[in-house]
Design a protein that fits this description.
- It contains 11 helices and 12 strands.
- The protein is an alpha+beta fold.
- The chain folds into 2 domains: 91 residues, Arc Repressor Mutant, subunit A; 167 residues, no CATH class.
- A 6-stranded mixed β-sheet has the order 5-8-9-10-11-12, sandwiched between helices. A two-stranded antiparallel sheet has the order 1-2.
- A hairpin with a 5-residue loop joins strand 8 and strand 9.
- The longest helix has 23 residues.
- The radius of gyration is 20 Å and the shape is globular.
């Protein structure tokens, strides 16, 4: 009886959740998990073979959650390049290394801009220990009102647990979030979107990504829309900005000027079935 209530059969497509948004907190697409796992391998090891990657991925992802060899190779090609001197070896692309190292610098830049714009700054708990230039850490940008933790009286404790991990928040004098930024160097953004969606009232919810990842971002967001994890109304509330644009910003007005709709309005066809989040196409 429970299955009949929670799942519906879509003719020609298969079984899917009757209300997918209920499972937003628990479902992360396989493509997100695979993307992060491949990048983790490449960051830990100077060079790898395809077999090295396959072995580690197949150890982590089992049963129905096992990605195909083609999925793994495609993800490897997305983030790695062949070593020109050693046949059969792969290494993290130099541009990806640059994006990873820029992650902290962009959060710092946004913190400086937000402070100068009169906002109270909160840095995500997982980012606070990241070092920045001149012997400082990102936690040094956290406003004195939040030294004992993020306090937002209009947000319940469950949602606050999610929100306190957003990379950076600009908060006004009434303790309301005005801007929320997630700085991402990959398109494994489902958890970032989930955190941003935890803010129920109107504010600028922004994903900051490298411009080279834009098309992949659009595909990922559209997939989440089609599978019901994001509604059309949700998408209207999300914005994006590119690394390249944020680098040039020096004021809140500059940031406002570079914000864009998170999608371009394109629609894609997705096989909407119960195992979509196990075998999503990248």
């Amino acid at each position: 009886m429970r299955e009949k209530k929670e799942f519906v059969f879509l003719k020609g497509r298969g079984w899917w959740f009757k209300d997918p948004s209920r499972y937003w907190l628990h479902i992360i697409p396989l493509s997100d998990r695979l993307e992060l796992a491949v990048i983790d391998i490449l960051r830990r090891k100077a060079v790898v073979t395809l077999d090295d990657v396959l072995q580690e991925i197949y150890t982590k992802f089992t049963n129905a959650m096992t990605p195909t060899r083609g999925d793994i190779r495609s993800m490897l090609e997305e983030y790695a390049e062949k070593d020109k001197r050693r046949r059969g070896l792969w290494k993290l692309k130099s541009v990806v290394k640059a994006h990873i190292s820029e992650h902290t610098r962009l959060i710092e830049r946004l913190a400086v801009i937000g402070t100068q714009g009169g906002f109270k700054i909160w840095i995500g708990k997982r980012e606070q220990s990241a070092p920045v230039k001149k012997g400082r850490y990102l936690r040094d940008f956290v406003h004195e009102d939040f030294m004992k933790g993020l306090y937002l009286p209009s947000i319940d404790e469950q949602r606050l647990t999610q929100i306190q991990n957003i990379d950076i928040l600009w908060i006004d004098e009434h303790l309301r979030i005005r801007y929320a930024f997630e700085v991402e160097y990959t398109t494994a953004i489902t958890e970032a979107l989930r955190r941003l969606k935890s803010i129920l009232y109107d504010c600028a919810r922004v994903i900051v990504i490298p411009k080279v990842r834009n098309r992949a971002l659009i595909r990922k967001v559209d997939s989440l829309r089609i599978t019901g994890m994001l509604s059309d109304d949700d998408l209207k509330r999300f914005k994006k900005a590119f690394f390249e644009d944020i680098r040039r910003c020096t004021s809140v007005e500059d940031v406002d000027a570079v914000l864009q709709s998170i999608v371009d309005g394109s629609k894609s066809q997705v096989n909407l079935t119960i195992d979509f989040f196990m075998r999503e196409e990248t």
